[in-house]
Amino acid sequence: MSEDAGTEPEESEAAGPETESGDAESAPDAEADDADGERATEGRSVADDVAEYDDDLAEAVADLEERVEAAETRADEVETRAEEAEERAEELESSLARTRADFQNYKKRAKKRQEQQKERATEDVVSRLTEVRDNLVRALEQDEDADIRPGVESTLETFDRVLAEENVTVVEPDPGEDVDPERHEVMMRVESDQPAGTVADVYKPGYEMAGKVIEAAQVTVSEDDE
Q1: What number of other Cβ atoms are within 10 A of residue 9's Cβ?
Q2: What DSSP designation does 174 have?
Q3: Domains and CATH numbers, the chain
Q4: What confidence tens digit (pLDDT) does each residue in 56-114 have?
Q5: Can you tell me the distance from the alpha carbon of 66 to that of 72, in angstroms, rounded to the nearest whole number?
Q6: What SS3 class is residue 170?
Q7: pLDDT digits (tens, 9 = 90+) for 9-58
Q8: Which residues are within 8 A (CB) of 197 and not within 5 positions of it... i.e. 6 or more apart?
Q9: What is the distance between the alpha carbons of residues 22 and 95, in angstroms, rounded to a whole number?
Q10: What CA–CA distance (Å, rounded) separates 119 from 127?
Q11: β-pair type (206-209, 212-215)
């Protein structure tokens, strides 16, 4: 038994160099594994960085696209509001033009009514004056030798002057003048030395103001010869 016990250490000693040799051989492999591990780690780190960069870039691009889209939307809204404002401005301008035209037409109508009212009022006054004038003329024809004749003639002259200032003229056709239906009112037909169908005499003078007949002259007309 002692021999067996003595041989075991020898085997152990003999195995020692092999172990050292194995350890020596496994050292480079371990270093290689470490290098590969480091390279793998570095590769994963770079890939992670690239992936992270790609994610950041994609996020930035998406954010930029959102901003661009929002800006385009705001631009469209601004353009729409601008178009609406332009349409509103055109409507207001058109409405203003119509209002101005209506106001101008109103002024013209008001002025015309005012002129017509003034003209009618003047015609009424003139009609009253012509009645007085006619009475003065008849008074002169009936009382040729009256003492008041000079006063009547003076008053008649005053009336004629006032009527002239109002642009009023006497319609008093001469005998033998053609009858004007617009200015002459035929009272009757009489025998006369004037041509048939012409004015024989003036029964009552008429008046016109600014070319407008306000009272036709009453005349007699020479009748046809048979």
Answers
A1: 9
A2: P
A3: 167-226 (2.30.22.10)
A4: 888 888 888 888 888 888 888 888 999 899 899 999 999 999 999 999 999 999 999 98
A5: 10
A6: strand
A7: 444 444 444 444 445 455 555 555 565 555 556 556 777 777 777 788 88
A8: 178, 179, 221, 222, 224
A9: 107
A10: 12
A11: antiparallel
Q: Please state the length of the chain.
A: 226
The region, left, alpha or beta by phi > 0 then psi within -120 to 50, assigned to residue 189 is beta
User: Dihedral of the CA atoms 210, 159, 124, 183 (nearest 10)?
Assistant: -50
DSSP state of 178: B
Q: Answer whether 171's CB lies under 8 Å from 207's CB.
A: yes
Let me know: does 202 contact 172? Beta carbons within 8 Å: yes
Structure tokens at 55: 């994610």
Q: Which residue has the tokens 């009253």?
A: 128
Place of tokens 């004056």: 129
Strand blocks (E) in the chain: 168-171, 184-190, 199-204, 206-209, 212-215, 217-222
